Structure prediction request, 464 residues.
Amino acid sequence: SGKSGRVSVDAGGAEVLARSGCVVHDDRLELRFRVGLPAKGRSILGRAAAGLLARDLPRALEAVRWASLDAEEVREQVLLVEDHHHLRDALAGRGLVAFVRDGSILPRSSGVSSEPLEGAVPFESPASLRVTLPTLHHGDVTGMGVPEGVTLLVGGGFHGKTTLLEALQLGVYPHVPGDGREWVVTRADAVKVRSEDGRSVADVDLRPFIHDLPRGRSTASFRTPDASGSTSLAAGILESMELGAGALLMDEDTCATNLLVRDARMQRLVQHETIVPLIDRVRELHRDHGVSTVLALGGSGDYLEVADTVVMMDAYLPHDVTARGREVAAEVPTGRAEEASRPPLAVTERCPVGRSFDARAGKRERVRSRGTRELTLGRETIELSAVEQLVDDSQVRAIGALLKRAHRVADGDTTLASLVAALIAHVEREGWVAVDDSPELAMPRALEVGAAINRLRALRVSQS
Ligand code: ADP
Ligand code: MG
Prediction:
């Protein structure tokens, strides 16, 4: 086969993730990898296999012995990861959603690469947003603090808004040395949300954003196999909150406009609106739910009305234009009124029932993934392209392994958030081996495991 004679190690990419391929015990290091025995057709080539197992593998293992490694390089990677966690845990205490160190290189060399762009403009914080944070191993670091509340990233097209936002969404993970984003650190509970035409939505209480559909149809338990731009975005926000999101990251490029804002003219023309756009909820999200929003925005200036902080990207460099934004908001009134009919901004928790996960079964419990885009569980394929904080195929495989167990926990009384927490806790307690023997699994966040379950077309829940 194609894998014949090949040794593959799931070393990962730019993000540093806990992996089943490498487990550090108190007294030893456990490495797990895949060896394809040399074969011709369906027969193993004995002599070649013996050479591989008895000669090549031991030699390869020599190369990863501590004595053969560049100890300084290894040490630096470990210290970086420790400082990433240290900074991440310090953000909330400083009232920050994220931190981007001066000198960071945010853009990638292409849309399909995670290599840094050569010759990029290094990041440099505006003075007014500059913070200095202590680290454990690298002294004080200085850069831009993204404050809690409502932050807009504005700027002309092609000036670096999306690039900054994408760096923030991946800042929930540590990065390898040399990546350029080693010192971009984002709160662990930050979630990128976006519109996702055609996804399924399973009995989400959408009323905070969408209420009273035509013909008296209620949205208290909204279910569809084919969501629109606005319903998928509303569901994404509410599902993320249900799973414990503390910050929402959004890009106007990928969000349905009608869920973001309804301007004065539309308010005048269309009286029977069923949508309460985010602009009328975003302050409440922060005040009443502690959920901050970072929104990359080029077109919807009405948002200046509700922003705490406005950062303008200009030729890839950020400027603090909060004060000017306030002036403009005062000089040019939007003419819009807050939507009159606004159901309470409440998140209804849901409890998955066990048979939601039956598709996993069949007799052989076939689980397959395609990159970070798709996860197939038995008869059902979960579409994951819009879950942008999944960064590694091995995270998707890991979600597959977790979902195979989900029917054991899902009893119709356990909330989705607790179900996901229980699945992850089991792995943390017992190790991946207890769940799945693949050497190619990487730990996803609870938020992404939940996002995958939310996209399961067979998902059945009872609202609690
Ligand atoms: P916007 O969202 O404002 O339209 P993007 O973030 O998509 O802009 O960036 C536009 C282009 O500029 C991308 O090709 C990106 O790689 C490049 N770019 C972004 N930041 C930098 C930077 N700091 N230095 C050089 N090029 C950059
Ligand atoms: Mg953009």
Observations:
- Residues 161-162, 253 surround magnesium ion (ligand 2) (CB under 6 Å).
- The radius of gyration is 24 Å.
